[in-house]
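Posted in: Structural Biology > Protein-Ligand Complexes

Title: Requesting predicted complex, flavin mononucleotide in pocket

I'd be grateful if someone could produce the 3D structure tokens for the following input. Sequence and ligand are given below.
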Amino acid sequence: MTEKCLIVYYSKTGNTKKIAEAVAEKLGGDLCEVNEQGTAQASDKNPSSYDLVVVGTPVNGFRASLPIQGYLTQNRDKLPDVAFYVTYSLWPAGTLGGMEKLAGKKPIASETFKAKDIIQGRVDEKVNGFVDALRAGLSRYWSKMVLNPYSPSQSINGPY
Ligand SMILES: Cc1cc2nc3c(=O)[nH]c(=O)nc-3n(C[C@H](O)[C@H](O)[C@H](O)COP(=O)(O)O)c2cc1C
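-- Reply #1 --
Done. Output follows.
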């Protein structure tokens, strides 16, 4: 049984990218960078062909970056289960809640990472905790599919 995970991110100065790469390395999965227009760089990475899409963004003005707002809006109907993380310098405010609204569903896990900690290499433990939560979410997905493969909703959380 393979669990397919897509890690979608936008990163202007590299912090969000670093976390995306660490999650991809620890969890396994495909990386997909979103450009300034909110379009996925690799158009073959269709979110609906994955079990889980992890979306990462820098906090920009107390919200998700515009490219990630665009990505979530454009792909809202194609998203399977989702997880979110943000990187920030001072305060992530309601960014995670805003992403949940744009995606139209609750994340199976979410996390925040401080820019200073990323730059100073002090996020390994937090990344491990986030990856553990993602693994737990993926295994709940598979238990549900094995128990009820004909479930009309494949999402753990159901519609928003
Ligand atoms: C235009 C702009 C707006 C930002 N707004 C916020 C903010 O509202 N709250 C915050 O804590 N950090 C804010 N930041 C800091 C970034 O979220 C933080 O440096 C982030 O880790 C950058 O990610 P990146 O390296 O992947 O681009 C802002 C940065 C920029 C450039």
